[in-house]
UniProtKB/TrEMBL annotation:
It comes from the Eukaryota. Residues 264-301 form a coiled coil. Residues 15-58 form the RING-type domain. Pfam families: TRIM_CC, zf-B_box, zf-C3HC4_4. Residues 438-448 have a biased composition (Basic residues). Keywords: Coiled coil, Metal-binding, Zinc, Zinc-finger. The keyword Coiled coil applies. Transmembrane segments: none annotated. InterPro entries: E3_ubiq-ligase_TRIM/RNF (IPR051051), TRIM8/14/16/25/29/45/65_CC (IPR058030), Znf_B-box (IPR000315), Znf_RING (IPR001841), Znf_RING/FYVE/PHD (IPR013083), Znf_RING_CS (IPR017907). This is E3 ubiquitin/ISG15 ligase TRIM25-like. The gene is LOC114449209.
């Protein structure tokens, strides 16, 4: 590969998520490659949404793509780790100093890129000319640092001496001669000691920061789990509530059918009894008319002997059976039934209203982050681990403290009713206050 002129860099084999060399590389449908664990963990955060995004090109995938190991890329990465491909493939002309690089102070002609700077020699060296500092005993006490263009900043501008002392009073680096001059009597230490102390402080700050990061990551994980669990529970609850309301609708339809059949059965029974009574009355009327005709015929008989003989053979008038009382109102209807159905409707609306209020309260109690957001408090780098732990908000599932004060529809609390006054309120203990409609309904029933 080096002979073909291909220049490879270590960053080409880095995962854009963990910024480290690829481990078990996999390729997603858009063509980008990542560590298997990195992309799995990255997509686990979006699992509850159902849409998975490439971290680089932001292309969306749904459903979640299946991942398979990129064998060819894995072999190249393994060879890169074993053979140091980056160094082998860098051309010699890239060793020369570029515009922003530090030049070697020893090279003649075209200068190479410096890799180290000596604070004693106040010069920068390339990887070839720096070797005497490693091999010769004369340079053993010289201090080498990474190549820098700011070597003059390490020299006292007044005494031309190395800045090896730190003045804590003036918070600046000075040389030894400055101790006997303008910094006499100041709180001073060796620069190396101050560096060690600052590094310890930075270590403590870094440790505290890592603790806070871990706590935040733990909270983020718990929050993602809570969101996923709540979303799954919401879907399941919605399906179960649909099933309950469907069963309730079926029950109401069944009752409607039963009431209709009850009315028809009552109509058939009452009309059948009335028709039987009407037939019996019509028969009695026919007998009475027949008897009346015989009497009328007898009264017109002129032969006295025949009249007397006929009077002896007369039968007594038929005895009428006792007739039940008949409701002869001209507007006889099922009016009381309509009233009873209307009362049932009002009672059902009252029960539904109370049920919706209870459902509304239970739905509003489901929350992930409870209470108001805490006031933001500045976190300084000097804060200790215990202080940072006190400022961490605890993420728990807490029921909400109350309901919104917006107007609510009397039959469906989930829908606002505009400027109308709500027909229900809540007592301090959360129970619903009566609107009076149910009391009026019960009074009407007692009067009947």
């Amino acid at each position: 590969m080096a002979q073909a002129g291909v220049v490879l860099d270590k960053d080409q084999f880095n995962c854009s998520i963990c910024l480290d060399v690829l481990k078990e590389p996999v390729t997603i449908p858009c063509g980008h490659s990542y560590c298997s664990d990195c992309i799995q963990n990255y997509w686990d955060q979006d699992d509850y949404i159902g849409v998975f995004v490439c971290p680089q090109c932001r292309q969306n995938f749904s459903p979640r793509p299946l991942l398979s190991r990129n064998t060819m890329l894995a072999d190249v990465v393994e060879r890169f780790k074993k053979t140091g491909l980056q160094e082998a493939c860098v051309p010699d002309n890239e060793r020369f100093a570029q515009f922003d690089d530090v030049e070697c102070d020893v090279c003649s002609g075209r200068k190479n890129k410096a890799v180290k700077s000596c604070l004693v020699c106040l010069a920068s060296y390339c990887d070839v000319h720096v070797q005497p500092h490693y091999e010769s005993a004369a340079f053993k006490k010289h201090r080498l640092v990474s190549a820098t263009k700011r070597l003059q900043d390490t020299i006292c501008p007044r005494h031309d001496k190395l800045l090896e002392v730190y003045c804590r009073t003036d918070k600046r680096c000075i040389c030894y001669l400055c101790l006997t001059d303008e910094h006499k009597g100041h709180d001073t230490v060796l620069a190396q000691e101050e560096i060690q102390q600052k590094q310890r402080q930075l270590g403590d700050i870094k440790q505290s920061s890592q603790m806070r990061i871990q706590q935040r990551e733990k909270q983020a994980h718990e929050l993602r789990q809570a969101i996923f669990s709540l979303a799954r529970s919401a879907r399941a609850t919605a399906e179960e509530s649909d099933a309950v309301f469907t069963e309730l609708i079926r029950s109401i339809e069944l009752k409607r059918f039963e009431v209709r059949e009850l009315i028809k059965a009552q109509e058939k029974t009452v009309i059948s009894g009335a028709e039987q009574l009407l037939e019996k009355i019509q028969k009695e009327i026919a007998e009475l008319k027949k008897n009346e005709a015989e009497l009328d015929k007898l009264s017109h008989t002129e032969d006295p002997v025949l009249f007397l003989q006929s009077c002896q053979s007369l039968h007594a008038p038929p005895v009428l059976s006792a007739s039940p009382s008949v409701n002869v109102e001209p507007n006889l209807t099922f009016g009381p039934v309509i009233t009873a159905v209307s009362d049932f409707k009002g009672l059902l609306q009252e029960v539904c209203q109370g049920g919706f209020v209870s459902i509304y309260e239970r739905v509003r109690e489901v929350n992930i982050v409870g209470g108001q957001h805490h006031a933001a408090q500045p976190e300084t780098t000097q804060s200790t681990e215990s202080a940072s732990a006190e400022h961490m908000e605890e993420i728990v599932v807490i029921p909400s403290s109350g309901l919104d004060q917006s107007p609510i529809n009397p039959l469906n609390p989930f829908l606002t009713a505009g400027p109308t006054v709500p027909t229900f309120a809540f007592s301090p203990f959360g129970s619903r206050l009566s609107t009076g409609s149910r009391q009026r309904h019960l009074q009407r029933r007692r009067k009947k």
